[in-house]
Amino acid sequence: MTQNSHATPPQSPVKQLRLVVEAADFDAALAFYRDALGLPERAAFEGEGDARVAILDAGAATLEISNPAQVRMIDEVEADGRPSAHIRIAFEVDDGAGRTERLVQAGAELIAAPRETPWRSLNSRMHAPADLEVTLFEELEDPETRHTRPGFTAPTT
Questions:
Q1: What is the pTM of this model?
Q2: d(CA 39, CA 146)
């Protein structure tokens, strides 16, 4: 059964998605993700043997599952066909072009400059510290409008 876009989404039994990344250069990764990207530090811990961790708040979390055909299509649109990593991290931001420029200045390798996608977002792709492939996306239309266009559906329960 399809819900309309105004319905309340079902409550998830999962309370938080935490992506755990090992960063050989911890300080560079922290400077990039906390300081340049702007993810607020929620907690940080230090332990014996120079053990360090910082937990950064990345806002709402979703898990995007795509089949191989969808991944190829995204790669074509977003990065001129360059295949993406098996796991790619995507951050929604307000100023996609400005934030991309800031992250490149902070050490990211630009894979694809910001471009408008058929699903009406502005996407860029880069290789970032801690050996992560990152997409930045800025939504250019609201979900209610998007759900009315061909190929898009409203959330289901």
A1: 0.85
A2: 27
State the chain's maximal CA–CA distance in angstroms.
55
As given in the structure block, the two tokens for residue 155 are 């959330």
- How far apart, in whole angstroms, are the C-alpha atoms of residue 115 and residue 97? 9
pLDDT digits (tens, 9 = 90+) for 73-115: 999 999 999 999 999 999 999 999 999 999 999 999 999 999 9
Protein fold of 26-146:
2,3-Dihydroxybiphenyl 1,2-Dioxygenase; domain 1 (3.10.180)
CA distances from 131 to 1, 43, 91, 113, 126 (A): 40, 22, 16, 19, 10
Closest to 75 in 3D by CA, of 19, 135, 121: 135
- Residue carrying structure tokens 């939504």: 139
Amino acid found at 147: H
Q: Where are the domains of the chain?
A: 26-146
Handedness of CA 98, 103, 106, 110 (dihedral sign): negative
User: CA dihedral in degrees (20, 24, 30, 33; nearest 10)?
Assistant: -60
